[in-house]
Amino acid sequence: MKTIYYLLVGALLLAIITFLAIRNITVQNFLIDFDANRMWNNIGKAETIEGDNLVGIVCGSRGPLPGAGRAEPCIMIKTPEHMFIVDTGDGSRTNLMNWQVDMGNLDAILFTHLHSDHIADLADFHLYSWVTQNRQGKLPVYGPRGTDKLTNGIMAAYELDNAFRTLHHGEEVAPSDIAGFETTIIDLDRPVIFDDGNLRITAFKVKHPPVNPAYGFRFDYKGRSIVISGDTDYSKNLIEHSKNADVLFHDALSYDMIGRAEDVARPLRPTLASVFADIQEYHASPVEAAQAANEANVKELIFYHLIPAPGNMIAKMIFVRGVNEVRSDNWTLSDDGTMAILPVGSEKVKITSIK
Ligand SMILES: [Zn+2]
Ligand SMILES: [Zn+2]
Predict the structure, then answer these.
(1) What is the reported pLDDT for 38?
(2) Which of 10, 61, 251, 339 has the fewest beta carbons closer than 10 A?
(3) What CA–CA distance (Å, rounded) separates 75 from 336?
C-alpha cells in the first residue's frame, strides 16, 4: 500500500517537474540544440553502417495514391564510396533529410521513367544536394528519352529561385556554376551506365505500356546484387536481368483492392473507376511479383511502389493475399525506411530499417 502511495507521489512530482521544465527557456534551448544536432549532423544510420556492404533503402514505398507516412517511389543505393537515388517521388527528399542522409555524396539520380510520381521531388533533390553541400559539379541525372526536357524544364522553372539563393547566401554556399543538371539519356545499346570496377549499374527494359521506354536497374557490387523494377507488369525481361540477384525491389498493385475500389467507384465517379481499371494493366500484382522473383531465383523480394498504400495491419494482410502460396518466405512488404544490407563476402541479406 505504502509502495503504491510513494509511486503515485513520485509520478505526480515528475509530472509537475516536467510541466514546469518544458516552460523553462534554458530547457527549451537545450531541446532545440538537441534536435538541431540530430537533424544536421549528417551521420544518420546510412552513414554509420559498418563494413563493406551493398545497401538498398526504400526512401518512398507508395505509388501515386495517397498514404499517410509513405512517400512516392524512391530507392537509395549505397556502397561505402557511392550513392545513387532511383526515382524521386513526392516526399522522398524529406524522408532522406529526416534520416540525416548526407546528400553531398550523391553520385547521380536515375529515373526508371518519367511518370509524375517518380519525378516530383527532383527540384528539391537538386537544392538539397547543392546549397551547403559539397557537390563538385552539376547533378548527374540518367533517364529515358525526355529526361533532358525534364531537367531543362526544372532549370527554367527554378531559374529565379537558384539566382536568389546565390545572391542571398553567396557563391561559397550556393555556387552558381554547379547549379543545374548533367543529363544523360540512357541508350540500351550501351546498357551499363556506371562501372568503376567495383560497382556496375545496368539498365534494362520493363513492361509499362504506353510508357516506353521504362527501365529497371541492376546494381552489382563485389558479388552482391540489387535489382529495382521501376514500374512494370510481370516482365520476362526483368526476370532475365534479375537472375540470382540478392534483392529485388518490385512494384506491386493489389488487383483485389483496386479491382474492388473500381467497382465501388463505378456508379459514384465513373472516370475514377476507369483510371482504377487502367492502372491494373501495367503493374504486377504482389503474386505476380513473387512469381517473377521465384523464376529469377532471387534471394529476397521487397515489394514497394504499393498501390494502394496499405495503412494498417489488415490492409497489409489483404495486400499480400496469395503471396505465401507462391513464395512462402524471403519477401518483405516495405515501409518507408526499409533497408536491405548485403555484406560483401557473404550470402546474408539483412532486412532492417533506417528509422
Ligand atoms: Zn509509378
Ligand atoms: Zn509509372
Answers:
(1) 80
(2) 10
(3) 10
